[in-house]
């Protein structure tokens, strides 16, 4: 499960009007089901050398695939059919581990709250269900 998007070398994803780059990948960004379709559009743009085709997956951009996932995501990994993320739900809040199910698209936060990155990294690296 992946899609392709056009990204500026300076950052940002090309939006549907093919003129502006959005900082975050969202519903307004142009997206393609395969690399070849993306390349066809890049070849029609003026600054082709300043645009990369990037693959967006649940592992690389979980917020897009799981809209209910809120906050800042620091790291992700996949365990079977789940994407596991370290997330800070709101700025300054304790870190949590989010479990995102690829089949159901549901997101569940674990009950445990971690005060610092080193604490949550230990739990994240040994996390398993």
Describe the protein's architecture and organization.
The chain has 129 residues and is of the alpha+beta class. 16% of the residues lie in helices and 33% in strands. It is built from three helices and nine strands, in the order ββββαβαββββα. It has helices at 35-42, 62-65, 117-125, and strands at residues 3-8, 13-14, 21-22, 31-32, 51-56, 72-79, 82-88, 96-101, 107-109. The strands form three sheets. The protein has a four-stranded antiparallel β-sheet with strand order 6-7-8-9, with helices on one face. The model has no long low-confidence stretch (mean pLDDT 90).
Q: What order do the helices and strands come in, and which of them pair?
A:
Elements: E1 3-8, E2 13-14, E3 21-22, E4 31-32, H1 35-42, E5 51-56, H2 62-65, E6 72-79, E7 82-88, E8 96-101, E9 107-109, H3 117-125
Antiparallel strand pairs: 1-4, 1-5, 2-3, 6-7, 7-8, 8-9
Tally of helical runs: 3
Largest sheet: 4 strands, antiparallel
Q: What is the strand tally?
A: 9
How far apart are the termini? 22 Å
Q: What is the residue-averaged pLDDT?
A: 90
Low-confidence stretches: none
Strand content: 25-35%
- Write down the secondary-structure element order: EEEEHEHEEEEH
The percentage helix is 10-25%
Placed side by side, the strands forming the largest sheet appear as 6-7-8-9
- The best one-word shape is elongated
Q: Which structural class matches the secondary elements?
A: alpha+beta
Radius of gyration based on Cα positions: 17 Å
């Amino acid at each position: 499960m992946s899609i392709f998007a056009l990204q500026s070398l300076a950052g940002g994803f090309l939006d549907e009007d093919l003129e502006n780059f959005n900082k975050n990948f969202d519903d307004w960004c142009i997206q393609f089901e395969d690399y070849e379709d993306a390349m066809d559009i890049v070849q029609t743009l003026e600054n082709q050398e300043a645009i990369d085709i990037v693959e967006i997956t649940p592992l690389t951009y979980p917020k897009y695939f799981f809209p209910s996932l809120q906050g800042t995501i620091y790291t992700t990994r996949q365990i079977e059919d789940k994407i596991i993320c370290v997330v800070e739900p709101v700025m300054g809040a304790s870190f949590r581990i989010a479990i995102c199910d690829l089949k159901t698209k549901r997101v569940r936060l674990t009950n445990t709250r971690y005060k610092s990155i080193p604490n949550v990294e230990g739990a994240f690296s040994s996390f398993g269900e």
